[in-house]
Design brief:
The protein is mainly α. It has helices spanning 3-24, 28-40, 44-54, 69-81, 85-97, 105-117, 121-133, 148-160, 164-176, 184-195, 202-214, 224-240, 244-256, 264-275, 280-292, 300-316, 320-334, 339-355.
Amino acid sequence: MDQDNQTETDDSQAQYEMGLVHEQAENHAEATKCFRKAAQHGHREAQFRLALTYGGKQGGPDQDPGANWNEAAKWYRKAAGQGYPPAQTMLGLLYEYGAGVRKNLDKAIAAFEEAAQGGHPEGASHLARLAVSGKLLDPDEGATQPTKVQITKWVQRAAELGDRDAQYNLGVFYERGIGMSRDYFKAVAWYERAASQEGGHRRAQFNLARLYASGKGIPPESSNTTNLAEAAQWLHQAAQEGHTDAQVTLGIWYELGRGVGRNPSEAVLWFRKAADRGFPEAQFHLAKMYAKGSGVEGDMLQAYMWYLLAHKGLHQRGKSEMERTVLSKLGDVKMEMNESEIMEAERLARQWTADE
């Protein structure tokens, strides 16, 4: 490297480090100026930091819709082109969502692959997410995407580095037998690592509850009572983190006394949390509790309203079998109501939908 190039490199590094100082002091305008000067001289970390000022600090395009993704993409491309793994991961997200670039899943996967090969855990984690969702095509059908075995290696690497999403996805891989032999014991182990991290991982917690309740991946000497108690603990954690399936399941367990002491009032509490978020299965169970007067004072008007909402939600989701059950329950409740009560319940259901 000649002296002029060395001087330019030193200057850009100094500008970048000054930018970090300003950023630490929350002097964002000055930080951006420093990052821009360094980025214009080809400093890849500065290019990445500059890109972040335009979009990405709040997460990917699905989490930061108000960002200037066109300008962000310009600088992510430059940093990614110099082999900077965090920029490659962000560029992959831009291609996946079509933010600042034309949407292109193949390019997204290629960018995630480069990031994963460069040792960036999030790149591997995004590949795992795409694999679990089914967006990664089977190479036997002519796709150019990485094979499931390759993806599994990247996810394993990310999981071992402590990426909780990767740990969760590795648990899914072991549970479903994706890219490896099915192994419920290893699934439980990886779910537990993800679920036990600070902040938890509600999907891992829910899956742990499921496996403990079924006894899959659990030592055979563990009793069913012990397994259900452990499952209930994980359900509680997932439900408290807002996992609606966990909230409904926990409500059912409190209603039946499974893994926890029977407590209809507690069941109503968890059904309501999920019902208020528009979850039709929870609305169905909440309506049933109102109709029976279990855990809550009996109220046919409230029961009818929640059955109406459950029916609408189930119909929209195409759950015809449960929808037929709700229709039957609606008929039963309707027989115990007068016309004005029915009209009021219908009005409340319309109002609830409008306020949602």
